[in-house]
Amino acid sequence: MSAPLPADSTVVVVGASLAGLRAAEEVRHEGHTGPVIVVGDELHAPYDRPPLSKQLLAGTWDVARIHHHAPEVIDTIGLEFRLGRRAVALDTAARVLTCDDGAALAYDGLIVATGAVPRRLPGTEDLPGVHTLRTLDDCLAIRAGLGAAGLGARVVVVGSGFIGAEVAATCRSLGATVAMVEALPSPMGRVLGDTMGSVLADLHRAQGVDVRVGVGVDRIEADPGGPDPLTVHLAGGDRLAADVVVVGIGVVPADGWLAGSGLTVEDGVVCDEHLFAAERVVAAGDVARWRRPASGELLRLEHWTNAAEGGAAAARNLLAGSEAAIPYDPVPFFWSDQYATKLQMIGVPRPDTEPVVVGGSADEGKLVALYPDGDRLAAVLALSQPRQLMSYRPLLAAGASFADALAHAST
Asked: What's the rounded Cα separation, in Å, for the pair 6 and 27?
């Protein structure tokens, strides 16, 4: 058990995206006066990722708009950024972080917020025109590819999770010819389940997207000088010609650099219910896999709100010490904008359970659906019904029964 961190001690934050930035800000907001060093592997100042697959990709926002703060705002809270530096090793016994430039940073408290990295299709890493989307540079490269192909660019999106579905919607809105290929039976099926995933598939088909589900990609071939710069070969034998391919088949936590650190790493950095991974070490955001206080299960979330809330909570607990730490027990929330539809969900659904639609319908393009977990309410999904969705938040926070949720729906 650890005591509060001294106010003049050194805090190092590994990761300069949302979770890391919110953590660093919270350290200052809590009155910490010692050095706060933020290490980030990108050269860019911290920026928001959701617009990368929407407004920035569409060209309706410029790059300056996605940055979290103007430089002069960051300067006023006294954060020391080491950008373009990648963490390569951690010695928790000596409390030293090593970066790829050889710098060894001694810390009194450490916040691990290195996020996640995209999965790639084997054999496509060096193919021109084949992209993943995680960083600002990724987004700008896709935009350049679309611009080079011109109006009616042929885009194949491999994967239909958050990134894939949003990229497909954005490219279609730009006038591109879009095919979306998914190995699972429905888009976003791992999160929404197949019933609601099929609703999402119909939404894309109604906008003219060629949605291929239940089929994988065998290989991608490149012919930069030919009429078809890229050819996507599907497992069933079909071929899709493309000018641009975007691979959105999920991410893996960026935790490989922690080998030998003494931290437990299993699909992310394993933490207790207070986000502590070791003495004086906490984790937050996509890389953190923490024990939920209510259920005891280990959970890792890749949502914007979890990064923001978890970063702040990890910082407060690090400063307070493990003896005074408060369990991190949020009501998870995520959203996705696709065409004119706003998809929102609170809670953590069990995708193998059948949701119950309690308001609206797929035909209307507006609905509310409840997901059970045994006799409890696990999650609520809304399509373009934000006010109705948020009325269920207190029920989820209180661990309400599914019967109570159904009763709420009828009021």
From this structure: 12
